[in-house]
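dumping these here so i dont lose them again. two proteins, back to back, each one seq then structure tokens. dont judge the mess
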Amino acid sequence: MRKMMRHGLRWASAFCLIAFAAVPAMGDVIYNNLTPNNMMAIATRPDTTAFEIEAGDDFFLKSRTSINGASFIGLIVPGSAAAPSVSQVVVEMYRVFPLDSDAGRIPKVPTRTNSPSDVAFDSRDSGANSLMFGTSVLAPNFTVLNTVQPGGIHASPLQTTGGNGPLTGQEVQFNITFSNPFDLPPDHYFFVPQVDLTNGGQFYWLSASRPISGAGTTPFPPGVTDLQAWTRDAQLDPDWLRVGMDIVGGTTPPTFNTAFSLAGTAVPAPASLTLLALGLAGLAGTRWRSSQRP
């Protein structure tokens, strides 16, 4: 009996190792709305050379997931000095308010319902070598109809500015590999990328299709609301504003998604792995007993 169990468990363990080894390095598509358009571009940058600006758009996970890759598309707009280059990329993951937040505080914005939380759930930084990035130019000149530029975010009651108008820049795609993948439990999250540029340049995250549509995209599952893009800067922190509803405003305010995708793999629950191992061990035992019959 002990020999049979050892044989079965060795076979089960080998099967599990083979199964995990077969998972692609970048994993499967977890979310995809990499469909940039010219409706809106939102400034976003870490606080390394100027005040911090964040912009976030949401995605939903039905099960625990390891996120090991991401892509996002935006504009690189040069300053008055030489051509800019990318000096730092930060990616943050936020949960939905009121998680990770002080829900008892009086906010400085019209609403916090369905906004990102006060503080990030987790983050990765190229400066800390927890992510690697590459870029590719999609268009040398790309003009958006409206923007939220640095200094264009204001607390209530002055939040509705209509936006800061059109802007032209270089359309660039960022492809990210997380050397330390995000381990995210099932939940509703906001993806928040930040890009720091040299020589006074500024990065703007481009809007994307809403509702989500197009070949290869991943609409939200039934019953889960696709939330809109939010933004804040260091002066508004910890509150957030809706880019379309609050900042652009108008009689019929627009709503925006932003252009990004995520790659990774679902992480099996420990109970599932145990059941798999026991099932395989039982199967191995049945095969062993059959082989001992005359």
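---- next one ----
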Amino acid sequence: MKNLNFLFLSLIFGAQLAQSQSPRIVISLNGTWEFDQTTTAFPPEKFTRTIPVPGLVHLAEPKIVEYDKFFKRPDKPVAKEQFNLYNLDYTPRYSWYRRKVFIPKEL
């Protein structure tokens, strides 16, 4: 048990020592990203939309294809016994995000 305690304390102090030698640098990825959707699992050749990150696909400009179908609200509540993935009335799409991040030479 003493060996385990010693190992645990060594790991804690070692981590603190390593952290104090090289300060952590945080690069924010928040902001406006390039965005597009495809029906295949391959990225688009050209990004035609922008989107704020963090954010959801309904914030894309211009709006996504089939936006009205994807975000439609029924006129009245519809009771379903079980959800069936194959009964979608919109085409499922892959969402692709892209942003260039510049890292200083010294990092």
